[in-house]
Structures are given as C-alpha cells and as structure tokens.
TrEMBL record:
One of its GO terms (molecular function) is phosphorelay sensor kinase activity. This is histidine kinase. It catalyses: ATP + protein L-histidine = ADP + protein N-phospho-L-histidine. PROSITE patterns: HIS_KIN. InterPro entries: HATPase_C_sf, HATPase_dom, His_kinase_dom, HisK_dim/P_dom, HisK_dim/P_sf, Sensor_HK_Regulatory, Sig_transdc_His_kin-like_C. The chain crosses the membrane at residues 6-30, 158-183. Keywords: Coiled coil, Kinase, Membrane, Phosphoprotein, Transferase, Transmembrane, Transmembrane helix, Two-component regulatory system. It is an enzyme of class 2 (transferase).
Amino acid sequence: MFNTLSGRFLALTTVFVMLAEVLIFVPSVARFRQDYLQLRLERAQIASLALLASDTLDADLEAELLENAGVYNVVLRRDEVRQLALSSPLPEPIHATYDLREVPALTLIRDALGTLTGTGERIIRVIGDPVQQGGLLIEVTMDEAPLRAEMLDYGLRILILSAVISVVTAALLFAAVQAFLVLPIKRVVGQIQSYADAPEDARRIISPRASLRELREAETALQAMETQLTSALRQKDRLAQLGSGVAKVSHDLRNILTSAQLFADRLEGSEDPLVKRMAPKLVGSITRAVNLCESTLAFGRAEEPPPQLARFELAPLVAEVIEAERLATPEGEVALVEEIPAGFVLRADSEQLFRVLSNLVRNARQAITATGKTGRVTVSAREEDEEWWIFVTDTGPGLPPRAREHLFLAFRGGVAKGGSGLGLAIAAELVRGHGGRLELSRSDETGTEFAICLPRSAPALSS
C-alpha cells in the first residue's frame, strides 16, 4: 500500500496531523495546569472567608475546609499584612514554588512538563492574585500528585481525540486524493496503454477533460504528442507503400535497362564514327541507371536480416574483396593493398562485412579513378581490448563538404555523379546491426579514411 501515491499520502497526512496535534497538546496541558492551580487558589480563598467571618475556627472545621480546597495551608495578604488564614501539618518539605502572576507562556510550558515528568509525593507552593480583589496576594501549599494525575488523564483524552481526528482527516483526504488525483492519473495511464495497442487509430488519442489544471496540461501535451505520432506513423506507412511501388518500378526498369545495355554493347562494334563516339556515353548512362535501380532495390527491402555472428579470419575476406575490385581496375591505375595482421580473427557476419568492405573499397577506387591520376587504397585493421577496428584509406581528392554533411543519408550522400548515395547508408546500417559504428575518420586533400568499429562482445546479438 505504501508503494502507491494514495498510500503514502495517507501516511504523511496522519504523521503531519499528529505532529500538529502534538504542537497543540503541549500548550493545552500547560493551560490545563494553570487553570487547575487557579481553581485551587479560588477554593482556598473561599475557605479563608470562614476565618474572616469569625475570629476562631474549630479544628475539625478548619481541616474540612482545607480538605475541600485540596490544600495544606492558605496564606492571604491583606493591607500589606501577611496573615496565615488556614494551616495544617505538611507531610513533606516544599519541593518548588510557582508564581501564577504574569507568568510567561514558555515558563508555563516548562513547569507543566516538569509536573508531568515528576515522580513521588511532592509538596508545592502556589502564589497568585485573589479573585474579586479579595486581597493583595494568596498563597497555598498543596500536594502535586493529584495535579499530575489530572494532567495525565487530560493528556490521554487529548491524545485519543487527536488520534481520532488524525484518522478521520487522513481518511477524508485519502478519499479526496483517490477521487481528484489518483483516478484521473489511472485514467491517463489506461488511455496510454490503449493508445499503445493501436497507435494508428486516431480514435484512441486522448481528449483532455481533467478538472485539475496540472493534469489537464499533461493531457493536452499527451494529446499533442499522440497526434504527432499518429500522423508520423501514417506518413511512414504511406512512404513504405510508396517505397514498395518504387521498388517494383525499379525492378521492371532494371530489366528493361539491362536489355538496352545489351543492345548498347553491340553498338560499340559499329563502324559508324558517330555511333562509335556516342556509344560509350550511352553505355555509361545505361550502366548508371542500372546501378541506381539495383541500389534502390537493395535499400527498399523491409530490413536487413540480423547478423549471423561467427569467428573467422579477416585476411581471406579482405583478399577476396580486393581481388574482386582488381578485376574492375585498369592495371597500374589504382593500387589495392591489404595490411591485415596475420591471424587476425574477429566475430561478425562474414557476408555482411564483405558487403560493407566492398562498398568502401569500390567508393575509394572510383574516387581515385575520377581524378585521372594514380592512387592507392589500403585496408588495415587493429585489435583493442573492447573493439575491433577496420580501416579503409585512400589517397583520393577527399569528400566535398556536401557529401560529408549527408554522408550516411540515403539519396543525399552520393559523391559520384549519377550515384544514389545508398551504398554508405546500407553499409552503416549493416555495421549498426553488429552493435558497431561506421565513421569518417578524416577527409582532406591527401585522401579519405573510413573506420569500422565492431564490439568484441555484443550481448544483444545471438551468434
């Protein structure tokens, strides 16, 4: 129960009400003690009237008057003369004297606490002003034990009443919190759970109706967030449908362009000078169009399959990537170099890593070829305590600022003319699937370097 908002509120309310009652209890007990002593002074003054009425009193009558007043001695001062009105033997020496004339509140509280904590039979002297101006001063001696008993009884009744008030107040506040705070919060939580089951359903968007300003502001903010999320999901669904349509069009267009490419290849054997001059451009344009269709189809898949992790040596994989690129590179134009330490073993999906490295090496080779100069592409690796690092470095012209800004964004990070920019986006996605990251380490006039970081342990992935 104490793990709930209402339970904790109930406990805190009880504690605070009891604390308030304690703060009221102490002055109340002090006031009760003062009234008790004042009443004893008044009774003693009334008893002393019998002595004023006659010069002598019978001993039995005097003892009865003192017993009714609850005191041992009565001293009344009139006309600056101190007179002993009534007296009887004291069983004990006087323990303390209390003056009730213009006594400060803190002193009253201190004396009351002293009486409550006192033990044994103690005799006290009490001094006060006579009522109805019956003299200058009245002084009595009395037993403190009856006073202490009365104060304890009064305090117990106050504590019981305080406890009842605390329980009733806490129960009322508990019911109020349940009605005005907890139930509206539960309604909001229930609405969130309902919306989470079908976020595309606009009918499940919350409608603010809380009467409390803070809760209504929270519901309004939640309504705005759910409205935006529903719109985003709808837009995502439309984009997915559009992407599916584009993929179908790209598939058919690729087949058409492949046929056109075959015909264009035959045109290169023509003896017509104009055809010889235009055929390479036609073949290049068709080739770029085919590559764009293939990249679009690759990126348009719903998602890449999760990596199948296994340990393997990196050097043979890099050698295969470099050998494939050498077939497309004119001899002597771009040097492809492998610098993988012997016995370098990592844990990854070899097929997906092959795709990533192929893309990076191909981009580096094409960047150097576009300059018309010779260059070098190097694949290297190193091992650290927590990570494996693979580097693809080239001596090309570097990436332009626009390409760096949108480097891993599909259809925006392309560098080569006619490129789609999908290659790096797909490569980055594959590396993220391993729990790693693909970074641009540097890019300037001396060349470009990409770094692949793969974690040595990937608890979120299953091998």
